[in-house]
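User: Structure please.
Assistant: Input sequence and predicted structure:
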Amino acid sequence: MDEKRKSFGKIKNISGIAGQNILIVLVIVLVVSIAGIECYRVLNVKLRTQTAEAATVYDVLETRALFIRDEKSLSDGNGVTLALVSDGEKINTGGEIAMVFSSSENAAKYASYMELENEHEYYTDMQNMAVGNATDIEKLESDILDSVNGYIRSAALSDTKGAEENAAEINNGLTRRALLIGENVDFSSALSDVESKMNALDINSCKPVGYITAESSGTYSRYTDGCEGVIDYSSVKNMDIAAFDKYLNVAASANGNTDGGGKIISSFEWYMCCVVNTSDVIELEDGYNVQVVVKSTGQVLKCTVVKGADVSVAEDQTLLVLSCNEIDTGLAAMRLEDIEIRVKEYTGIKVSPSAVYELNGEQGVYALVSNIAKWRRADVLYTGEDYVILSFDNGRRNELKLYDEIIINGRDVYDGKVYA
């Protein structure tokens, strides 16, 4: 019995050793497999290329600017006003801008009558339209397509007013098209309905009690904020930082209003003013043309540096004044805006820094030409967070050119290497 027990113990011990050996072998196989996979990855880097296409980036100066225009607010005539001109419309001296009513009820009733008049004129014009020719139809169909695209853009931007205007243009265009191709469209019932509504309004009881007229010619804006008579347009070029800070405080507490008489912007040229560090304007000079991005809208404006760039380095800050002659309804209502001044522009090929090599003391990349790697000279013009901008087409031999296929990922790349 003792011999049997001893033999059984030996068998158990041999079994345990065999299990340990199997485990060791499995670990070794696993390590070798992982090493093999890593070696394969290193030795078999997938070749990737990028087509060389031009891109533009900028050194930018971000700041908050005060918008100053040659503008004057208009009186509301001590009553309720109803505009006769649209936002952004050009006005001549003495031109009627708005009607004044004794009450909001009278203004609303008269506005309804004016809308019905426009509607009546529209249907009358449609009814009198003659059948057109193919050229008219092609132009009209092009206009309809433009309105459809405009509607899509406005809807994407949640621009309700723009979407409504484009929808109206689409409806108008489709109706005109039906008339031009000779379809019979009956407007008599629509005209009759409009005339009935006009007759129901007692227009004589709600006529305007006065008019607001323009004292000078210019661009009309419905928007006012109370800064029109406070910020001195004529002194912008002589303004210092202390005066700017005073105007800035006024603008910061201003409240916008579209219920009054509006304002007239007399000059096309207006200014953006901002205080910046002197070190930020080293690349600028007075008289330079720059691009300015209004960050709230993404609008890019062409501006000129009026003053503040030619400043002593001993001064910590400078009042930078930019002029612009672009104006629209949105710009006419802006007062304090975050802007981005594009100080310096770099145009070149945008690639990953890993694609750039140095060969014989020169920078460049490798381009894939008929499955062969070819050296292309290219200077790094600008370094971004995860990209560089490279020069191209500078007339040098072996220079990087547009539409070259740049190798951006490959193992052991060298000039003349053949890729199967």
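The longest strand covers residues 336-351.
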